[in-house]
């Protein structure tokens, strides 16, 4: 299992980095939407949707996003109107997604409530996946390096938590949700991200706020991981899918991104979002 996990990572990470920096923006956005759509299909399987419903769910996710990305190129709508609509949807999508992870997800984890209605869980799935995708696009317009840096933060935190927790873990973080996660693993993630953020501040350099921001990204990535673990446990599933050998499904690999990227984008883009809010409210 560990060997398959490493081999899959060695294959996927370089491919992802190449697409991030080499693909034109719209095609990269479409690729990320495809990944989010696969995750939507897996979400449907975890939350009790039938096979037909899962297909409809991922198709709706894909078509909606494609229209937003390519409508201007296809001359389906007025370009100025599309730009305004994209700004509006990006702002509200990222804001609502951030509030979900800051307020609702922690309460959900605390109560471990089992929501069973497929339609409700479908809406939650969009609330989990689409803000992540919008945040990726928003951050990419600033710089692909910004996207890479934030993704690397989550990967470093996840890897450090895994190895430190496996070697030193004794105190369970959430035994009824994810018995393998420990407080020692959380400490390992925090230390690794602190070193990473400090190096960035020294080499680039960034302002002082980078370190606490990446701490927040780390905490939110853990919350996202725990929420997916809760839903899998309630569905009596080990993985969200089997697409990635050694890793499980796509959702198993991006759970930390679903929770951390929206708030990172909101923080970085806050002045612009305030101007959008003044325009539409």
From TrEMBL:
It is found in: Cell membrane. InterPro entries: PC_trans (IPR000374). The chain crosses the membrane at residues 27-44, 56-77, 89-110, 119-139, 145-165, 186-206. GO terms for cellular component: plasma membrane. The keyword Transmembrane applies. GO terms for biological process: CDP-diacylglycerol biosynthetic process. Its EC number is 2.7.7.41. It holds the Pfam family CTP_transf_1. Pathway: Lipid metabolism; Phospholipid metabolism; CDP-diacylglycerol biosynthesis; CDP-diacylglycerol from sn-glycerol 3-phosphate: step 3/3. Keywords: Cell membrane, Lipid biosynthesis, Lipid metabolism, Membrane, Nucleotidyltransferase, Phospholipid biosynthesis, Phospholipid metabolism, Transferase, Transmembrane, Transmembrane helix. GO terms for molecular function: phosphatidate cytidylyltransferase activity. It is an enzyme of class 2 (transferase). It catalyses: a 1,2-diacyl-sn-glycero-3-phosphate + CTP + H(+) = a CDP-1,2-diacyl-sn-glycerol + diphosphate. The keyword Lipid biosynthesis applies. It is a multi-pass membrane protein. PANTHER family: PHOSPHATIDATE CYTIDYLYLTRANSFERASE. Belongs to the CDS family. This is Phosphatidate cytidylyltransferase. It comes from Pseudomethylobacillus aquaticus.
